[in-house]
Amino acid sequence: MYNMLLESHVGGWEVAFVLLIIAYILHRMGKAKAGKILHMILRLMIVIILVSGAGLLFSYHATDVYFYIKAILALVVFGLMEMSLGRASRQQPSLGFFIGAIVLMVVVILFGYENFRW
């Protein structure tokens, strides 16, 4: 069970990273339909990440504060992703939210990989 949750969580983050970049570019290029489709797929990945992350957190790492901090940062990443894509779809300035989402997403992913090396 642990490996299933872990693999879906890690894979979800990797796919979400790629989808965020591609959806943002499509929205900025004016390809609203394709951008909206990828945005919906990204939201599905967010749900997968949330469910698998909650399963990992509460089943296997409930006593480790490090994982709660990572979970809070991940929720901020999800918010920044939604704000950047929402503003990009309306053609409003969104580069700051996009860069913030990418940087914080890399930090959260590195936190996850760093912890599994110990």
The shape is: elongated
The counted number of beta strands is 0
Amount of beta strand: under 5%
Distance between the termini: 20 Å
How many distinct helices?
4
Helix content range of the residues, please? over 70%
Going by helix content, strand content and strand pairing, the class is mainly alpha
Mean pLDDT: 90
Report Rg.
Answer: 15 Å
Report low-confidence residues grouped into runs of 5 or more.
none
What does this structure look like?
This protein has 118 residues and is mostly helical. Helix content is 88%, strand content 0%. The protein has helices at 2-28, 32-60, 65-89, 95-117. Helix 1 (2-28) runs antiparallel to helix 4. The longest helix has 29 residues, at 32-60. The chain is elongated and about 45 Å long. The chain starts with a helix and ends with a helix. The mean pLDDT is 90.
Indicate the topology.
Layout: H1 2-28, H2 32-60, H3 65-89, H4 95-117
Summarize the structure.
The protein has 118 residues and is an all-alpha fold.
Provide keyphrases for this structure.
118 residues; mainly alpha; 4 helices; 88% helix
